[in-house]
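Lab notebook page, bench 4
Experiment: in silico fold of construct C2
Operator: M.H.
Input chain length: 391 residues
Purpose: comparison with the prior construct
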Amino acid sequence: MKVNKHINLLWLLGSTILCLTFLLLIPITADCSAEAVQGETILEFHDHCADSGYFIMKDVDDGSVIMMTARLIHVDDEYITGNNTHYIVERVEGNTAWARSLGDIDLSQPPDILGGIFKSGMLSQLTQAENRDFTIAVYHSHGAESYVPSDGTESIPEGGGILDVGEAFVEALEENGLEVKHSPETHVPHDAGAYNRSRRTVEELMQDNANVFFDVHRDAVPAEEYKAVVDDDQIVQIQFVVGRQNQNVEVNRQFAESLKNATDKLYPDLIKGIFMARGSYNQDITPLALLLEVGTHENTREGAEESVALFADAVNYYFAGPEAQRAQEAVGGTALRTILWVILIALLATGLYLIISTGGIEEARAKISHFFQKEFAEFKGRRRGDSGNDE
């Protein structure tokens, strides 16, 4: 009787442990579907698929693939493709999001978008608005992200390849004459607190007078999803992510659309698209903020670095306007004129030296004529010798 009681007690204890273990494992092994992640707090930070791959967004009418992303997709999320076709998600089934086309949209830059924001007083921290005195901040909420072909792994807790991509972006922006601040903080681990930790970084950068923010990431989908051809060269694409759940969403979105429009003018197809996703991604702190997906873990880090350097040109064009482009062209023209002047001055100096050393213009002319006759004769001799050897 006692033995049976002990057996029953052990069975009850074992069953309890088994049930508790199962309940604890549910969040880890759950599928990467929108239904599997509930609650605003979780959505804000658990923004990536982990164990179940990635989402595929498909056209509800013809079933064609619109895009792939490792970010969670929810009903009412929106997407603007590289060709500016606008989609909205109607339903999510497992890891497939079905979206309906709302037609093509015009991304023509709104009239003086930044000036409009400043004049409306939405950005009180930008005291130099009228002078367009911008300071750009580059940071990484997921600083461990890496590129497998170049870094050997997709994550490096001490600091992944994404930090190198951010540094390449910063250097290119600075070469364009823009003031930039770069935070190398990794905000590891890649867990529910990553965006909380990066939020503190954003606040610190704002105290250091930064007012335009780029959170640089990389996606986790097949490499082909982020490949395109620009000027006959294969490049790694960049995708914008705008958080739908913040009070600045309309300005964030307008910023993303007009920046894509400016980039398209310089480097068509560099921008893969704009994903309006559920969450805020710290964009509620300031209107001029974007999350960038620079390629995927299967692209090379070097390719990602080349792409952000191109994007830096577009950022400069966007903030400085056509004047920046004309200034760059003027620099090229000035350089050419400088070279021609150097050659002309060298020729004049040589001519003056010959006149002085030979005692007169006629003597200098005779010396030059003799020099060219001699060199030309030797050249013809060398050519005949070369022909004989070829035969």
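Observations: The mean pLDDT is 77. The chain has three domains: 43-101, 106-320, 327-390.
Next step: discuss at group meeting.
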